[in-house]
Amino acid sequence: MKRLFSGAQPTGTLHIGNYLGAIKNWVDLQEKYECVFSIVDYHSLTINYEKEDMKKRIIDLAATYLACGIDPERCKLFVQSWIKEHTELMWILSCVTPMGELNRMTQFKDKSSKNVGNVNLGLYAYPVLQAADIILYKSEFVPVGEDQVQHIELTREIVRKFNARYNTDIFPEPQEILSSSKRILGIDGENKMSKSLNNHIGLDDDDKTIQQKLMQAKTDPARVRKTDPGNPAVCNVFSWHKIFSTENEISECAKGCVDASIGCVQCKKILLSHMKELITPIREKKAQILKDTDYIKDVLVEGAKKCDIIAKNTINEVREVIGVKI
Ligand code: AQP
User: Fold this and answer.
1) Is any atom of ligand 1 closer than 6 Å to the C-beta of 115?
2) d(CA 162, CA 153)
């Protein structure tokens, strides 16, 4: 089986954007690929965080993966910081990564504008660590949301630079795999749904919270009163309908919006029931899994053991290729 790699940061509760853009795809891809899934904790040091929360967040993210259907029997699930070869390879890749390429990264521009007091080297070099994460396992595929595509393109560029500089072909150029819901907007209807922006519907949210958030979600701004006709094409809630609802419901909501026979609240209520159908079983299963943190730690230890073997082999090969092995 071909190998793939992906990960998420332990920066807070995963949301339906993470799930639909990435995690659901990971679960499905376990059938066909050798999967390596990581909790990329070192990436999450690039923005401010509470040290005391980190352990809990790592365990929480592992429980979320498991509750979503990541199967530790079929894939390798591990914590990035436990495998030190990630950061070693990052340094080696840093030495073939042009700064001009890093300067183009939109995520860096975006995150540095939101963290003005803490624009650090790690935030800038984030895509190089991400490239190391991927190619340490010689992964050929990377299932991610659309926001990460630029970083995967850069990974390919770094692979080309490395292979050319050292006259080798040890690393394949990885390809992204996008889901059909590659960019979910937040309840603000403007920004990408994000853990760090307070605009998400979380996989941990209870029914009441989901309802409250959904009722706040922005719709067509031109539709002020129920009697105003709307345009589903500019309504973020309608874009969610296209993911969650049945064909009939989608066409009824579209028609009802255009001729103002259905109000936004009614439209959201239909969506609410479908969102609950997705979130409730994940939330309940996660709560169950979290009761046994020893099990979660065992899963991560086992995953790390398997990753460690691959990582050490790759780094040995890399040391040979770059000429530092005596
Ligand atoms: N809104 C989204 N729509 C589709 N896919 C998304 N992803 C994130 N947001 C959306 C995908 O989820 C995976 C894990 O993301 P991450 O934890 O590495 O961090 P991120 O991309 O920075 O996600 P967030 O939620 O926006 O986190 P914060 O707020 O901490 O930065 C990735 O594959 C991502 O593409």
Assistant:
1) no
2) 14
Can you read off the two tokens belonging to residue 321? 């290729």
Say how many Å lie between the first and final Cα of the chain, rounded.
34
| Count of structural domains, the chain | 2
Give the ligand 1 atom nearest the CA of 15.
25
Q: Which atom of ligand 1 is nearest to the CA of 11?
A: 30
- The single-letter DSSP state of residue 225 is S
41 is in which domain, residue-wise?
Answer: 3-184+293-322
Give the pLDDT confidence of 204-259 residue by residue, as tens digits: 999 999 999 999 999 998 888 888 999 999 999 999 999 999 999 999 999 999 99
> Please, what are the averages of pLDDT over each run of 10 residues along the chain (326 residues)?
98 96 98 97 96 97 98 98 98 98 97 93 98 98 98 98 98 97 96 92 98 96 89 95 96 94 94 97 98 98 98 98 97
| Token couple for 206 | 């209870």
Considering the domain architecture, whether residues 160 and 240 belong to the same structural domain is answered as no
Residues 6+ apart with CB under 8 A from 84: none
